[in-house]
Amino acid sequence: MRHLAAPEQQFTITIEKSLPRQAVFMRVYESPETISGLGSKKHHANHLSCFEAQLGQATPTVALPDLLADKVEALDASVLQNKLRTDVGLYLEPTSTMENLALPVAYRRVDSPAQHFAKTCFEHFDQLSDALTSTLLAIVPQERSFHISGESPRVLWHKDHLELRVPLLNALTAHPNIRT
Question: pTM to 2 decimals?
Fold first, then answer.
């Protein structure tokens, strides 16, 4: 990993464990900065209006499959399509499920098991890069406790803030033969 300089703005990073949940996503081959309407539940639920009752209090979210690789420059920068994937969707409440519903073709259902994640709250989407840098700088020294899983980080839009979630693996369960 290249050297990451700490951003000027300070962020609070916590490690939490989520409940099992579902999300529905539609893959868009654009970078998130070029997609208008991100954070709007109406935009994230495009083509899902017939499921309004099942969506309930769903939270607008994006999964960013290329965010970590881009931050650590792990991919060849000349391959542009690797940086143009954004999964736009909704993070469902723990009591909601879309398991028995046929989704429109463009959408896919994602079951998220209970898992640890690093949580970083921020105010504006243009702070995402700094929020991720702060998160990585906080997590990497804790490698005896948690490892970054490599799953796509997600951004959730709450009423008063955005939340970056970086999925983690518990180091003890990921490598049971290693003692700390």
Answer: 0.86
